[in-house]
Amino acid sequence: MFKKDNLALGIVLGFVTPLLAFVLYWLYARSSKGYSFQEMIELISLNHFFLLPKVMSICLIGNGIVFYLYTRRRLDTTAKGIFLVTMLYAIIILLLKIIK
Question: Which key words are in the record (predicted)?
């Protein structure tokens, strides 16, 4: 699966990787501050203009890692899909910062 080089796989990876990174971020927050998943979502939704861009930016680190791995393997079409979704996330983050 990870050896295929197509745009659809890159787009799917671009959307799924930040979600997995958010779960890892929650596990870290849970271990250090004791938040449940529901409490974490409520905290972000109550302060969404302040916390959401920050959490999204942290979660995009996962996309950077996956993008790096696919460019090292010369699977450039998949890397383009990951980059496309990362730029979409970046635009959303900038809009949230501007609306604030």
Answer: Membrane, Transmembrane, Transmembrane helix
